[in-house]
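Deviations from the work plan: none for this task. Representative record:
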Amino acid sequence: MAIDLQPDKPQQPGGHVPSGREPQPGAPRAWWGRPAIHTGIAGAVLGYFVGHWLGNLIASNYQQVQNSGQNDFAIILGYVLGTIGWLAGLGVFNDLLRQMAGRPVHADAEAQAAAAGTARFFRYSLDHKVVGIQYLVGMIGYFLTGGLLALAIRTELLSPSYHVFSSATYTAIVGEHGTMMMMMMSSVILGPLGNYLVPLMIGSKRMAFPRIEALSFWLTPAAYLVLLSGLMFGGFPFGWTGYAPLSIEATQGADSYAVAFGIMGISLILLAFNLIVTITCYRAPGMRWSRLPIFVWSNLTTGFLMLLAAPVLVGAMYMMITDRTVQTAFFTDDLGGSSYLWQNLFWFFGHPEVYILALPGFGIVCEILPVFCRKPLFGYRVAAAGMVGVTLLSFFVWQHHLFDSGIDPDMRPVFMLTTELISIPTGFIFLVAIGTFWKAKIHFTVPMLFALGFFFNFLIGGISGVFLSDVPADTTEHGTFFVMAHFHYTIMGGLIFAFMGGLYYWLPKIMGIRLSQRLGQIHFWTMFVFFNSTFLPLFAVGMAGQPRRVYTYAQNLTTLNDWVSISSFLLGGSILIFVINFVYSTVIARVPEQGNPWRSRGLEWQVSSPPGPGNFDRVPVVLSGPYEYGSKDAPPVADLDPPLGVLSEAYGGAGAGADVAEVQR
Amino acid sequence: MTPADAVAGTQRREPNHGMRIFLIWLPIALAADLIIWFVWGPHMPPGDMSSSARSQQFDINVMAVMAAPVMAFVLTYGVYALVVWRHRAGDEEDGPPIHGNTRIAVTWISVTSAIVLGLAVFGTVELVAPAGAGAGEGNTPIWKPGGGAALQVQVIAQQWRFTYRYPQFGGFETTSLVLPVGENVQFDVTSLDVVHSFWAYQLGVKADANPGVNNVAFTKPEHTGAIQVRCAELCGLWHADMTTVGTVVSTPAFSSWAASTRVQLAALTRNLPPYSLTYDPNSVSQLGKAFQQAGLTGAGGGYYGPQYPVQP
Amino acid sequence: MSLPARVAALTVAFLAVAGGVIFVVAHYLLGGPPTVDFAASGGQVSVVMQTDASSDPSAVPDHPTWVSYFIKSPVTGDWVHTTLFQVPAHTQVHMTILGYDGSTPVRNQIWGQVSGTIGDVAYYGGAPVRTVSGWNGPYLIQHTFAIPGLNLNVPVEAGPGTCSTGPCTNKAHSTTTFSFETPAQTGSYRWQCFVPCGLSYLDGNGGPMQTIGYMMGNMQVVSS
């Protein structure tokens, strides 16, 4: 079929309507008739019951099911079909089915984007800005849920002898907290801020795959609800690491762990895929790799980590599911499997996972620092190289989680070396910060405070990581609260502080309103002080011999544990201050903040707040990097209104002319 | 010196920030290192009750002495920068357009690489020299202690208690851990069901217990006293309760304990399966038969059911 | 929306979410099997329990196919489906376990050794035993009653296994009796079965072996 060089209307995917009829816009349907959350819930419930019934049909006469009284097959099928029903109810498959049927796709991304009103946030929206805000609200909700579970853990640990919860409840809460946080916080920056800001930062009007992006978001509430519903089945007693064979012999709550993690793994893969293609292919003319904002570099490298590591996780969860339902023996030693297989598969994902959690934080602080130091980012190439180095090396260090497990003893010096080596690119971020501070003009705004908090926390977290990478020292520290303190410092002290900083920095851009700076200062100082007072003593608690995931401990550690628990409640209070600030500022006060309050050179700040549909009126031509502070004669970051001929010259010579400019729209 | 200064003719000499930072950092780093090594060092966990604990303590002390100046540098620089280069009210100028400095970057990368590679070499030496430093080495350990045959103690982990078997004393099995001082001890750690981890804190020994796998760890107790044994891998509901208090006693006390316990538990020892490094009930013929008669084949529990024949 | 409307909508949404959360939390966290209290007896305490291969769905609605312990209430004489009980400190406890379940092989033979009881002995139908083989006769084991915190371990003799609708009262059973002294220190002492009897779970250690109220529980020692 010849390609129309001068189409008189934009090409429809799937070709023109054969009968020559053009799609009639028609009257828009009522809000309850169009697919949204309510139809999604209906689809989920229907799917769950169908799946459960199907599972009972297939498996209820298995001997295992009859003796044990639990049908894991039915539960898992219920969850999976429930998720598919949820997506179908939301309308995820509608466009796909239309294309398969040869009918034109009704939903036009730009028309949708032009729709105003709150209802679009409850729909399967193809506008990346709407998806970014959906992710933001979702991620804050997931974080608060995980945080409440953490407060429950610290309540139990107030006393070694008086038990608030039974051991079963406590172990289930520990597993839920860990899994909720590790699963969900993987996307806490790439989801909201990455999806919202990356097209703006690279000068693109859209994301490469809007449907995949929206799908990656709508999988997260499914994963969240599947995980929480595990509590109704009694929870799972094996923490977020899921070590077999405990995970094979556990009761029904383990199914929700496996399915939720699997769903979230798929969401990570889709999120990453979309971001990578967008960053690679949708950069505006003039946006060379050497001018790419560091935040975009961090999204790109984190995307590769997600894309390559999450499939291993999904595969491992699938193997756990078959071990639990159809009596395969992957992880069962007696029949030729191995518990080590699970450990290696899990940590092959698990180690890149923690860099998925760390790198986006690096990206955010590298964006914040130049703006509030009024200086270019020191060592831009070093920063980018550091992120690339971390990404590459993170696939070669996973066995440091297994030093004492009985792996081949020769492997341990090898992985000790690679783990020590990865601290070199991780340290580049400190070089960049040190250089950027040199002779700067440092403004202590709320985003900057969070960036400074990030550096303080990540310093402690990173150095404690070096202690853990050393095998003899790890022999005492593995499986204790020392490890817990280390990863809470790097993940919460790093990622979450950076997330908060990014939120205070970019919320004026995203919503056109400002968060209260006064409450923000209170939020930062209380969060910083209580975060450190909660987690710094845990290094000592771990070295004194308290293992992880325990509800009782030696009497002489009671004072330390009480101090930590009370600090954690106060830390919860500081996060409550954040929630109050966020809700009050966005819903009640709504103080408008248009323009560029931080005087940033970033490309995203050169358009209105919030940006209009399609982000830019015309695809901009990028003229310089975003960190050119201090040079009076630096060109502006981009030309937002380039002459028509510029683009066509950029894309292939004169004569391609007007239709190329058309395509650029 | 900003162009404005040059034009105005005011010669404000820029202080040597690097030297100032160095001079503030040096005493802090020295003081920290001295306190760590001399005050804190002898009390650093896990103590010095055994050869592996002592070498781990030394290892942690050395790393702390190396980490403290690094942390002190970053914190000193940070505080200095935030105080000296903070934005003064009314100054709306940007800072100097410094994009990078190749010399600084190369120096940074070289120094951090040297420190890190040095730590890797040091860590390897500290792992190899003290016979594996108490970490579980799997079923083919390569770093074994010299100096005589070791006392073998099999640690059997099950949900939710550790039991200990002494093959050199007739293979009796007890719930108490008693060790002689001054002799090499070889722990053969295995599990009967899920993954546990045998962690003897004062001995500096940690070895994961995997089902069907033997994980060997070595140590040599050097002082008598009590040992806290905990499980260090989440193994189910009562993971926190899997604790033992073991003791290290003098060699004659140990010999008399072993002899008397052997006699006391003779009836039980006759019931135990023959000693083996890993334990699978199907491999013990009588026990396997009993499991089969009860309809529990495969991995036990009837999970794989009699309709699934046992595959080797 | 106007400001009052926004505030109202926000308050309603917040109350709905908070209400839902509190409901779920209260329902989940505070539920659990009841505790049978033996602490009021004073002096010696007599505890009677039974083990069953499976239970009547009316007595055990959650998992009727699971093997389970029951405790006889000292006040009403009814069989309570729980494994939580309370005893006074520094007291002799006489325990009788009626075993209605059939035999299960022990995975680790050390749990056939009686320990921690008064006299280091237990009685199977009156006959004293100290070490039980579990697979080699003359006695077979169905479960154990073990309190690791007191180093107490007693294998329960296997019964004929003819009753499968617990709590059983009128079928043949084995009788295991023993006595032990509760410590002076109050607190909670977990107890568990060491025989992998969770049928159709991997290694026999799942299901009832991992759920409080079936094959594992808690003995709370309170001051007398």
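Chain A has a mean pLDDT of 89.
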